[in-house]
Amino acid sequence: MSTGATVALLVGIALLILPAWLAWYLVSRQRRVGAWPRAQATIRDAQEKAYRSSFIESSTTETYVHAHYEYRDAAGIQHVGEVEHLHNGKVGDIIEIMYDPADPDSSDIVSGGSTGGRIINYGAIFIIFGGGGIFLILASLGIISM
Prior knowledge:
Layout lengths: L2 H32 L3 E17 L4 E14 L5 E9 L7 E7 L2 E7 L5 H26 L6
Antiparallel strand pairs: 1-2, 1-4, 2-3, 4-5
């Protein structure tokens, strides 16, 4: 096996391992975070920010809110958190958050994103990396030609 074929084989294996690791990480994180207690939080500071979303021939400007919120844990202790990309939030709004019971200062908003959207996004990553990995492995073994 040539050096190029060996490198292609190793890169192909890495491209197969990456989506498997990502799946394991996402599932274990979801299990851990899914068990966190939830609380109501009040937005105390909100700043609207804009970013440009550009594709091949079009460019749009989208806005999001960077916000700081306050919440109380199960013991009644007040904590402050922040969220970088909140849509339609303003000072005084109530949002649902979840926090780490082992470290109540660590919190995250409860995502309103759809499960279907996440499956499509993660599926695309798995198909791209996994497909590339399979192609490189097959090419390095001489099963298909480049």
